[in-house]
Amino acid sequence: MTTIEIILAVAFVTYILFSGFAIYVMREVIVRQKAKMKHYKSAKYQREMWNKRMSEIHQKRTVKGMSEL
């Protein structure tokens, strides 16, 4: 094998390794995003957000009502 063939072989192997690593990282990111979305779609999270919004609205109305007096 000539020097150029060895360099090309090493470059090709390096490319394959980096591609495999990139695919692995993307799969892990997708798995984590799916888990996060499952949490955000859960009924418990939706109830927490609903209660938070209602308490904010209640506080705004209470403050607005107090300032009108």
From TrEMBL:
Domain of life: Viruses
Keywords: Membrane, Transmembrane, Transmembrane helix
Segments traversing the membrane: 6-26
Full protein name: Uncharacterized protein
UniProt source species: Siphoviridae sp. ct7dP4
